[in-house]
Design brief:
By secondary structure, the chain is α/β, with parallel strands linked by helices. It has two domains: 4-86 and 180-294, Rossmann fold (3-Layer(aba) Sandwich), CATH 3.40.50.300; 108-176, no CATH class. The protein has twelve helices and ten strands. The strands form two sheets. A six-stranded mixed sheet has the order 6-7-8-3-9-10. Helix 4 packs across helix 5. The longest helix has 18 residues, at 193-210. It is globular, with a radius of gyration of 19 Å. Bound molecules: adenosine-5'-triphosphate (ATP) and magnesium ion. Residues 65-66, 107, 185 line the site of magnesium ion (MG). Residues 65-66, 107, 185 line the site of magnesium ion.
């Protein structure tokens, strides 16, 4: 059943539509393999994310959502095209630069199993080597508190944590360098409904209190409706449409019909009366990148 925590609309947070985008992906091609074995994952894919947005990327399995997040993080290079993050090419950020600019919650938790909670959270700050050990430890404890964990959890090993706690530790780790941009790959996957609700509530709170810009991949419609100011749909190797969740849900495409109009989609959409546009103005119609380029695309 859809729960109130995940079906409420996201809080009003000022989105900055007229500033240069925080994430700008233009003419992106991603291909793997060589010669006759080459397969194309993204083909001339475009989208932008403005400051303060909480953009959800949805698409079928294997459509290249995780690859796209890795490209935004600078961990993977596109075959062609530009991925610009906070005004700089993502591929030039380097590991340290990436951690202070972009936090990533990986799809499968991805904690270091040999490190305790504190050492997992502190990892990027410790690697940077600019702060003394006691300050690194304090910073990690602050982040643990921020995600709702207690100091006594700091010495636990990942294997001894619940699924919800693993996600919280991974989130604390993603936020250790106070990045303005957070990437979430399936943040509520594998959690029971209660833990998923709690994690959504935490993400909403942190997004509001830290003023984060968030790009999230999710298959979970409750999570999508609770958190997204905008949705981008990946299909046919590109972003076929972006817009507020309730408008994108009515866009005609086989994937969208299957994704939103199934029983789960209807249930997730039902309790919400009207979409809350992120800008606080009347909701614009969903934009179709190829048919109606955004103003930014016209004036790069
Ligand atoms: N380094 C790589 N080398 C070769 N193929 C890759 C590589 N990384 C990803 N792929 C392929 O690219 C495609 C997209 O993968 P990706 O993990 O981004 O999908 P996804 O949309 O995140 O799927 P899911 O919803 O199942 O997580 C898949 O076919 C995957 O096997
Ligand atoms: Mg994935």
């Amino acid at each position: 059943m859809s729960s109130p925590a995940r079906t409420a609309s996201p809080e009003h947070i000022a989105v900055a539509p007229n500033e240069p985008p925080i994430v700008d992906v233009q003419g992106l091609w991603t291909q793997f393999g060589k010669g006759a074995e080459t397969f194309t994952v993204h083909q001339d894919l475009n989208f932008t994310v403005q400051r303060g947005e909480m953009l959800s990327l949805v698409g079928g399995s294997g459509t290249g959502k995780t690859v796209l997040l890795r490209q935004i993080l600078g961990l993977a290079r596109p075959t062609r095209g530009q991925v610009t993050v906070l005004g700089r090419p993502a591929s030039e950020m380097g590991r340290e630069g990436a951690a202070s600019r972009v936090g990533m919650l990986f799809q499968h938790g991805a904690l270091f199993s040999a490190f305790n909670v504190l050492d997992n959270v502190a990892f990027a700050l410790r690697e940077q080597g600019t702060l003394p050990a006691d300050l690194v430890r304090d910073a990690a404890l602050v982040k643990l508190q921020m995600v709702g964990l207690q100091p006594e959890h700091a010495s636990r090993m990942p294997a001894d944590l619940s699924g919800g706690m693993v996600k919280r530790v991974a989130l604390a780790r993603a936020l250790i360098m106070d990045p303005p941009l957070l990437l979430l790959d399936e943040p509520t996957a594998g959690l029971d409904p209660n833990s998923a609700d709690e994690f959504c509530a935490l993400l909403r709170e942190l997004r509001a209190s830290l003023g984060l810009t968030v790009v999230m991949v999710t298959h979970d419609l409750d999570t999508l409706f609770a958190l997204s100011t905008r949705v981008a749909v990946l299909a046919d190797k590109k972003v076929i449409v972006t817009g507020p969740p309730h408008e994108v849900a009515h866009f005609q495409h086989p994937f969208i019909e299957h994704f939103f109009m199934g029983e789960r989609g209807q249930r997730a959409m039902a309790p919400v009366q009207a979409p809350v546009p992120a800008t606080g103005q009347a909701a614009a119609p969903p934009s179709v990148p190829e048919a109606a380029p955004t103003p930014h695309k016209e004036n790069p």
